[in-house]
Specification:
CATH topology of the largest domain in chain A: Nucleotidyltransferase, domain 5
Number of strands of chain A: 17
GO molecular function (chains A, B): 2-dehydro-3-deoxygalactonokinase activity
Keywords (chains A, B): Kinase, Transferase
Oligomer: homodimer
Shape of chain A: globular
Protein name (chains A, B): 2-dehydro-3-deoxygalactonokinase
Pfam families (chains A, B): DGOK (PF05035)
Helix content of chain A: 25-40%
Number of helices of chain A: 10
Strand content of chain A: 15-25%
CATH architecture of the largest domain in chain A: 2-Layer Sandwich
Chain lengths: 332, 332
């Protein structure tokens, strides 16, 4: 089936490519490890020319064959590919940022193949401690495209778990404010590079009980000593035979996500006063969203939903708004 | 001058050796990188026998020449050398632990050279989240040996900053309770293995202003979102030109120590009620204690002192109590 758009979700550690059909439906997709911090390095010939540029190589891996078959399909990308360390910097748009309008600020780079890559800008919040996002703004838009028209956006909190999880508040189609937690990246560093990882053993699957135990410690009176102190319990509960090696990774995950969400819930209560905790919609990998769903409920968030295909939908919507798609003669 | 005791402070990443004279004064000392997790691996001959045991090799590096000159000097060690991953496990003593009595529970291992190494046990607190220490109990004893007799121990909080900082409360010569914070080890992992390290640049020395700024963020309303969120500001303040690369490491250090001490101060207030914050005495490296002194004052701890040579004094005191020292004929 004919491709109408190639959409790339190009982050720090991964690159996902989608071939989208006439109405934005996914015709084909692939996932590569060629994030901007781990680009390919082996030179080869692309479009008849020798090439050693990692961005070109990764781009060609992601969609070179699709473009060879259909050279005039437009291409759009979001994520860290637009950062200062990316292929070309797409300046941040400040909050309040109307996500549907981001298509008016696309950055471009011409690739070796002659195709122009359009890059979505990120969003910056100039708070006392600034916050930035790249890629999540597109997912938020994808979610908005799917929301029933009568949804009260200001009673919604959008959660995007990941290496750096984002929590986004909206108002009338604008990203009004957001917070970042480095939970995922710190978790990975602790498991790989501290004493906590040494006694962890692989478990058969997600150990929900160990995870919940970690969340509950974060919410308990012991949690008030903070994460830097609670972390040590992953070791000492192991030392004293109260936490098996196979339980330690999920316990630690629960401890960290629990601290993230406990702080988030407190901030929501302060900001919203008597209205209580907002409805949450999560966007992210199924496995990670499962953890966050469990922990959110333990933290008192009563309504938690999941959004799917938010990136593809958001990129499609921005490409349409930017006029990248060829008009469809059949639809005249 | 004749040695009366060889005292080893043998931790995870370092090994310090002290040759002590008749009244416990330091005659010679050396510092090696041969902690129990980075023991030497090149076999060689020790006391006429081939040896590939890392503990033996490190022990010989630390004090082999001292023992060759004076073979009958007793040797005592504290720290992770007595852990399950150490040379020989010295079982933990539970709290409340009378530190002066720990000499009655020394573990022993006979070395290749024929010298018996005496190992001080650690202390365990069987709280809901257990806590353990190895080495710090000896430093606490060293501090106690130096305290004026009329000191009110129960109004004292002993801080031992390090990879895992410990905060110890005493009562009548006993370790009554203690808390652990993994601040140092987590800081090292974040600098070396997360995005936060990528934009850090070496600074000419300790940047006190950047450090204080980090502490103040932890104590500010922004601090209530927790460390996992605040961490990201080390990146975004850099991105927005508000924090130079050379300031980022000390800012991060202030942020983390600030979160540790803010939580500690809250716990002290809860435990002590109206009495207010306790007097603090710090034991540790000069550079790290300087940071903690600054941050403690910002957190409201009004009285902060430093203790020196606590390890040597503690090991000496335990060796005396255990009867390891030969009687001194001149003193009859």
């Amino acid at each position: 089936m004919q491709a109408h758009l190639i959409a790339l979700d190009w982050g720090t550690t991964s690159l996902r490519a989608y071939k989208l059909g006439r109405s934005g439906q996914v015709l084909d997709q692939r996932a590569l490890a060629s994030g901007i911090m781990q680009l390919p390095t082996t030179p080869r010939t692309i479009a008849g020319r020798p090439c050693g540029n990692g961005f070109e190589l990764a781009f060609d891996d992601a969609c070179g064959d699709w473009l060879a078959a259909e050279p005039h399909v437009p291409v759009i990308a979001c994520g860290m590919v637009g950062s200062a360390q990316g292929w070309r910097e797409a300046a941040y748009c400040p909050t309040p940022a109307r996500v549907a309008d981001l298509g008016a600020s696309l950055q471009t780079v011409e690739t070796l193949r002659g195709t122009v890559l359009h890059i979505v800008p990120g969003v910056i919040q100039h708070s006392r401690l600034p916050n930035v996002m790249r890629g999540e703004e597109t997912q938020v838009l994808g979610l908005l495209c799917d929301l029933p028209a009568d949804t009260r956006q200001d009673s919604l909190l959008i959660g995007l778990p990941g290496s750096h999880s984002k929590w986004v508040s909206l108002e009338e189609g604008c990203i009004q404010r957001f917070d970042t937690f480095m939970t995922g990246e710190v978790y990975a560093a602790l498991c790989a590079h501290t004493i906590l990882g040494r006694t962890q053993q692989p478990s058969a699957g997600f150990d929900e009980a160990a995870f919940i135990r970690g969340v509950q410690v974060a919410l308990s009176p012991d949690g008030t000593l903070g994460l830097l102190s609670n972390l040590f319990s992953a070791r000492t509960l192991g030392l004293t035979g109260q936490l098996a090696g196979t339980e330690q990774a999920d316990y630690l995950s629960g401890l960290m996500i629990g601290h993230e969400l406990h702080a988030l819930a407190q901030a929501c209560r302060e900001r919203r006063g008597e209205v209580g905790l907002p409805q949450v919609v999560l966007i992210g990998s199924v496995a990670l969203c499962q953890r966050y769903q469990i922990a959110l409920r333990l933290c008192g968030f009563a309504q938690v939903g999941l959004a799917e295909q938010a990136t593809e939908r958001g990129l499609w919507s921005l490409a349409v708004a930017a006029g990248l798609l060829a008009p469809l003669p059949e639809e005249v």
